[in-house]
Amino acid sequence: MFGLTFLSATSKTTTHRVVPFLIKRTLEGVAGYVAGGFDGGNISRIDKVSFPADTKTTLSATLTTARQTMAGFANSGVAGYAAGGEDVFTGLLSGIDKVSFPADTKTTLSATLTTVCRYAAGFANSGVAGYVAGGLDNASTNFSRIDKISFPADTKTTLSATLTASAAYVAGFANSGTL
User: Fold this and answer.
1) Most exposed of 22, 34, 127, 155 (fewest Cβ within 10 Å)?
2) What does pTM read for this prediction?
């Protein structure tokens, strides 16, 4: 929570006092999302767990393609992303779906991952960019590449920096707000 306090201002004819007020970050700690998966078939559903009540709702918006094993990341307070993954019936995907907050509407980015992949790590530098690192392709080839989705334009670049080794089934996490 942020607060601003204004000092009194005095003029020749009157004293003005401004009442302190608070600016509340309304989207902080709002919800977590679970997208896609596999339950005997691919899932396109997106579930939302609202904080602090820990209640679950299912969005009317769904993934563009029912899929599993994708990377996820978020631009906190703005949007969440589901990238790549696998449709066990049609193959691997390179597309990126975006769920905009707080309306929870889904769009599909024109930018795509460098190649189709599954089991990649997703993480984000909130307000700056999301990243998809590593992964596995159709030929069971692991990747070391790192794709970057820059916010807010949602454009993709591939970093010259790569993972130490090609890897799939990797975890991603971020230390947001730290230089």
Assistant:
1) 22
2) 0.82
Instruction: List beta partners, residue 72.
Output: 82
User: What's the one-letter identity of residue 98?
Assistant: K
- Fold of the CATH domain 2-158: Neuraminidase (2.120.10)
Rounded Cα distance between 45 and 47, Å, is 7
- Amino acid symbol at 115: T
- Contacts for 57 with CB less than 8 Å, ≥ 6 apart: 47, 48, 50
Query: Hey, where are the domains in the chain?
Result: 2-158
pLDDT digits (tens, 9 = 90+) for 11-47: 444 444 444 443 334 445 799 999 999 999 999 999 9
Tokens of 141: 């080839």
